[in-house]
Amino acid sequence: MTGPEHYKIAEKLIAGGIQRVTPWGDTDWVAPTPEVVARAQVHATLALAAATASGAWAEMSNDESRSWDQAIGVER
Q: Would the pTM count as exceeding 0.70?
């Protein structure tokens, strides 16, 4: 899974947990459950790690750079 994919999942988890339709047809705000927040945080952290690694590849050794590229799903 790539960094952008982790970011999109985190965003969907948070956005999906905050809206509901009331019996009157209005949209109401509902806080996401702690479990949803925790899952979103994990995905957001992985997205940040991928973005950081992707931006720092020029300063890494070739082996380390290839390892990160493989881990975050990037081909250079």
A: no
Place of tokens 């988890």: 13
DSSP per-residue string spanning 12-67: HHHHHTSEEE-TTS-EEE-PPPHHHHHHHHHHHHHHHHHHHHHHTGGGS-HHHHHH
Per-residue pLDDT tens digits for 32-75? 889 989 999 999 999 888 888 777 766 767 777 777 777 667 77
Sign of CA dihedral 75, 39, 8, 48: negative
Question: 72 near 2, Cβ under 8 Å?
Answer: yes
Name the domain count of the chain: 1
Distance CA 12, CA 3 (A): 14
16 is in which domain, residue-wise? 3-72
